[in-house]
């Protein structure tokens, strides 16, 4: 277990210069996520065509793992349909929670594989998964089409 | 510092040898345990007292006529007497064992608090732990009473004038911490107690962060309630103390119902036990109480004043060492502090800091320290907090400083 495996260059880069940072206005769906234990907060705004994410942005405050994970996620899901996103979400979840396993993360994850080091730091899994939970809430919220109910909120606690 | 001219040199190496856990390694590195404010480690004396009790004295208390039950009762009641002496309380009737500081405060809020009504006020401070905020908020919701909050300044000190100005005949209780867990600030509790008494309010002091660092004399303080947890005092978890003045406690309605808190039970009418047992329903944490008594013995043998002096020297050293690190900001710079240093490092989120420090064997708390209003006041989502105890040494601080250097490297 090595700290460099957690804080890989890709993670540090996305933390310093988060991609797709900000807010889409107008947007088709949004959700807030927060991790009360850490104080990590983020807001996702999305534009959709059918069940395909055409654009996505995030904003918020958090640790390097949570910021980089959100930034990488926005890159990974842009242009993808819901089935592909769900698949990515499951793969990421498996990768993050594979504590003590030395297996390589699946190739499908692409750049998201940089988060694999988190599996050796169980206390930090929530930091990396917050954005994915929030994305799930935003898509579900959209599916329910409760447009007048305000944004969805999730908490990892 | 020249050790030869230091009177009564405190032998921290010998103290450390009393704490088996300090010999463990973390990720292959020496453990620098700097999270004593969250939970103190246990000396061998406590571990062995609990072990001895479990091996030779355990049975239920206040019940059996057989010898073992009497031994357990003697051990448990002996611990109560030990706590009484530790606090200089007038009587063991005033010592109620609870699960911890949090439960002690909830007991007061739910039992004593029943007398409150609309228009009554409870005064707390901005520096409280959530355990001394939420029970009062819940009480106010139930009764229509109003919660008032005395402000703090940018050094993390209480605005005592504002505290005084918020007191009025409507104030029924002033509940405040003796030491801020997030900032280390020592509050002027004597002046606060006097001011509250002057308007006829009762006072509750949250001593969770104070008991391991200074001598407590509840009679000299003049407060009505004093609460603390065993595990912040080098004792076991799951046990706390509520001290209340006998006259106040006698007037309070019973809280949880069950065995041990009753004299007789019939379906027509139940009569309640005497103090303090009326507030201790169910089988208590007997081994915890035995451990707490051993912890008090241990700390008093070391000398609380000497421990305090040792910790204050480390606080000075740690503060100047940390301030020399570029980008490091100390949150909480009160004139009088216990050995707690809360800080942020520019460009590194406290949680990343916590992970990197852990990789270097340094255990610090990161987060909001159950004091979210304090974090909000200083406009930070979280801080890292290093806190010291009787076993903390200079090597711990050096290790922390080196680890912070590593964090700056990683986040360049």
Note the topology.
The complex is a heterodimer of chains A (157) and B (412).
Chain A: H1 3-6, H2 9-16, E1 29-35, E2 40-49, E3 52-61, H3 64-77, H4 82-96, H5 125-144, E4 152-155
Parallel strand pairs in A: 1-4
Antiparallel strand pairs in A: 1-2, 2-3
Helix pairs in contact in A: 2-3, 3-5, 4-5
Chain B: H1 12-17, E1 25-26, E2 29-30, E3 32-33, H2 44-56, H3 67-87, E4 95-98, H4 101-110, E5 121-125, H5 134-143, E6 146-150, H6 160-166, E7 171-177, H7 189-198, E8 202-206, H8 218-221, E9 225-229, E10 240-244, H9 246-250, E11 262-265, E12 270-272, H10 286-302, H11 304-323, E13 328-331, E14 340-345, H12 350-359, E15 362-363, E16 365-367, H13 372-377, E17 383-387, H14 394-410
Parallel strand pairs in B: 3-15, 5-6, 5-7, 7-8, 8-9
Antiparallel strand pairs in B: 1-2, 4-10, 9-10, 11-12, 13-14, 14-17, 16-17
Architecture overview:
The complex is a heterodimer of chains A (157) and B (412). Chain A is of the alpha+beta class and 157 residues long. Helices cover 39% and strands 20% of the residues of chain A. Chain A has a 4-stranded mixed β-sheet, with helices on one face. In chain A, a hairpin with a 2-residue loop joins strand 2 and strand 3. By secondary structure, chain B is α/β, with parallel strands linked by helices. Chain B has 2 domains: 3-42 and 303-407, Aspartate Aminotransferase, domain 1; 47-300, Type I PLP-dependent aspartate aminotransferase-like (Major domain) (Aspartate Aminotransferase, domain 2, 3-Layer(aba) Sandwich), CATH 3.40.640. Chain B is 38% helix and 17% strand. In chain B, helix 3 packs across helix 10 (286-302) and helix 11 packs parallel to helix 14 (394-410). At the A-B interface, loops of A face helix 12 of B.
């Amino acid at each position: 277990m090595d700290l460099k495996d957690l804080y890989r260059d890709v993670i540090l880069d996305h933390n310093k210069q988060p991609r797709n940072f900000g807010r889409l206005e107008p947007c088709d769906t949004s959700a807030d996520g927060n991790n009360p234990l850490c104080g990590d907060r983020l807001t996702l705004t999305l534009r959709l065509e059918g069940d395909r994410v055409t654009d996505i942005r995030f904003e918020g405050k958090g640790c390097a793992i949570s910021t980089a994970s959100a930034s990488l996620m926005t890159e990974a899901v842009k242009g993808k349909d819901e089935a592909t996103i769900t698949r990515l979400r499951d793969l990421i979840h498996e990768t993050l929670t594979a504590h003590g396993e030395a297996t390589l993360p699946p190739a499908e994850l692409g750049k998201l594989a940089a988060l694999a080091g988190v599996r050796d730091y169980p206390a930090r899994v929530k930091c990396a998964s917050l954005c994915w939970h929030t994305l799930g809430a935003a898509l579900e919220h959209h599916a329910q089409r409760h447009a007048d109910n305000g944004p969805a909120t999730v908490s990892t606690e | 510092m020249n050790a030869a001219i230091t009177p009564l040199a405190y032998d921290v190496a010998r103290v450390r040898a009393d704490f088996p856990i300090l010999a463990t390694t973390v990720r292959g590195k020496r453990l620098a345990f700097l999270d004593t404010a969250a939970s103190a480690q246990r000396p061998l004396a406590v571990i062995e007292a609990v072990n001895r009790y479990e091996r030779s004295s355990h049975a239920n208390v206040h019940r059996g006529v057989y010898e073992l039950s009497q031994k357990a009762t003697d051990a448990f009641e002996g611990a109560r007497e030990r706590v009484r002496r530790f606090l200089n309380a007038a009587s063991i009737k005033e010592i109620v064992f609870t699960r911890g500081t949090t439960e002690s405060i909830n007991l007061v809020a739910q039992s004593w608090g029943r007398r409150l009504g609309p228009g009554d006020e409870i005064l707390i401070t901005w520096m409280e732990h959530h355990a001394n905020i939420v029970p009062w908020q819940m009480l106010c919701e139930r009764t229509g009473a109003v919660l008032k909050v005395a402000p703090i300044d940018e050094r993390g000190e209480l605005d005592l004038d504002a505290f005084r100005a918020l007191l009025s005949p409507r104030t029924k209780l002033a509940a405040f911490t003796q030491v801020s867990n997030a900032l280390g600030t020592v509050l002027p509790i004597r002046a606060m107690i006097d001011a509250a008494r002057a308007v006829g309010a009762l006072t509750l002091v949250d001593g969770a962060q104070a008991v391991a660092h200074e001598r407590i004399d509840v009679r000299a303080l003049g407060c009505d309630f004093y609460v603390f947890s065993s595990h912040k005092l080098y004792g076991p978890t799951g046990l706390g103390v509520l001290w209340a003045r006998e006259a106040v406690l006698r007037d309070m309605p019973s809280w949880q119902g069950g065995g041990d808190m009753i004299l007789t039970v019939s379906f027509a009418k139940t009569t309640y036990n005497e103090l303090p047992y009326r507030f201790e329903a169910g089988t208590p944490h007997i081994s915890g109480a035995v451990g707490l008594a051993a912890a008090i013995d241990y700390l008093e043998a070391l000398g609380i004043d000497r421990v305090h002096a040792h910790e204050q020297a480390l606080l000075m050293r740690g503060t100047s060492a940390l301030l020399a690190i570029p980008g490091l900001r100390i949150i909480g710079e009160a004139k009088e502090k216990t050995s707690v240093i809360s800080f942020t490092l520019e460009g590194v989120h406290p949680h990343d800091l916590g992970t990197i420090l852990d990789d270097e064997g340094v255990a610090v708390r990161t987060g909001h320290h159950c004091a979210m209003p304090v974090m909000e006041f200083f406009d930070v989502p979280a801080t890292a907090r290093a806190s010291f105890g009787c076993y903390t040494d200079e090597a711990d601080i050096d290790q922390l400083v080196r680890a912070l250097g590593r964090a700056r490297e990683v986040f360049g």
